[in-house]
Amino acid sequence: PSRDAVSYFGAGPAPLPTPVLEEASKVLLNYHDSGIGITEISHRSPEANAILAHTQSSLRKLLDIPESDGPEGYQILFLQGGGSGEFSAVVYHMVSVWLGALAKKRQQGLDQEAARLRLDYLVTGSWSLKASQEAARLVGAEHVNGVTDARKHRDGKFGLIPPPDTWTQTKTNDDVALTYYCDNETVDGVEFPSPPSGQNLVADMSSNFLSRPVDIRRHAAIFGGAQKNVGTTGITIAIVSNSILPPHAEMADPTLLRKLGLPVGPVVLDWPTIAKNNSLYNTLPIFDVWIAGQVMQRLLDQSPVEKSPRIAEQEAESNKKSQMLYSVLDGHSDVYNVVPDKSVRSRMNICFRVKGGDAEAEKAFLKGAEGKGLMGLKGHRSVGGIRISNYNAVAVAAAEKLARYMEEFAGERKA
Ligand code: PLP
Prior knowledge:
2 domains; binds pyridoxal-5'-phosphate; globular; seven-stranded mixed β-sheet; alpha/beta; Aspartate Aminotransferase, domain 1; three-stranded antiparallel β-sheet; 15% strand
C-alpha cells in the first residue's frame, strides 16, 4: 500500500509527521545546500552545534524547562542506549549523588551507612518493573524497595496505580537515593494522572514525552527514548536538575564506590560527563537530534506564543483523540473491555480485549482493521489483546477512521 493509505498505531518506533519525513529525505542528501548530507557532517561542526542548540531551546519552550546555572536550572542531555540505557544511568548517577552527599558529611563508618542505601521503585507496569530489576542487578535487591507493586492489587496483572496510602515509601529522606516511576506504561496502558510525590523523583517518560505539560521542578530527572513521540530511534533525552550535578552536587569518588561494592557506570552514560560536554562527549547522532528538533518546531508552530507551556495545544489534541476512542470502547462494553482501571487509562496506549480476550474475535478485529489500512494494533506479545498507540503523529482523522471501524466491528459482532 502507499504511505497515504495506511494509518499506523504501532507502539514505536512511532510514525513521524509527513513534512518532517519529506524534509529529512532532502537533508540526508544535501544539508542546507552544503553539498554534504546531514549524517556526514561532523558532530563538532557549527551546523551540528546549531542543530543541538535549536532542539534544546525548542524543548525548553515546549515544557517550560528552567534555564539557569544555579541549582534551580535543568540541563537537557542527549544520550544513546535508549530508555533501557537510562534504567542503568539513573542508578549509577543517583547512587553516586547519594554517597557523595554522605561522604561530605562524614568519613567514618561509611560502609555501615552504605548498607542503608535505598532506591524506591513504584512498579506499575512492565517498564517500571524492568527498571527496578536493573537497579537490583546493579546494587543488589536488598537496596531496592518496591514501594508498590500494582500486580498485587489486581490478580497478578498490571492495570492500576494503587492508592498512595498503600505505598511503602522509605521514610528517612536522607536514605532515598531516588524515587522512580514510569509516567506511562506502554505495554499495560497505564498512565499517572499526575506525578507521585517522593524524594529525588525520577521519571521515565519514554512513551508520553511531549504529550502534556510536565511539572519539571518536582523532578530530579526525567528521561525518555525519542522513538515514540519525539523522533527517530537512536537518541535518549534526559532532563536533569542542576541540583544533582556538579558543582551543586558532589559525586562520589569511583574508588569509594568500588570499595563499598557500589557500581561505577560507563562514561557514555555518565550524566555529569555528558552535561559538561554539552552532549558532545562522543559522536552524537546529529540526524536524530535534527529530527527531534523538527518535530518540536512543528509543535511550537501550532501553539500560540502566549500559551505556556507551549505543549498545551498538543495535550488538547491527545486528549481529544483518546477520549473519542475510549468512548467507543465504553459504548460497546459487551464487545470491548478496556484493560486498565478507568482512573489510570493511558492517553497514549489504549489497551483492550475483544469479547474478554476471545482469540478468534481479536484476530478478526485485527484482520478487518488491516483491510482498512489501520495497522499496528496488535497488543504487546507479553499481554496480548489490542493496543492502539495514540502518539502525537497519529492524526485526528486517523483516530476518527479507527473509531468508525470499531463502531462497525462492534455492530457486526452484536448482529
Ligand atoms: N520505557 C518505556 C516506557 C518504554 O516504552 C520503552 C520501550 O518501549 C523503554 C523504556 C525502553 O526503551 P528502549 O527500547 O529505547 O531501550
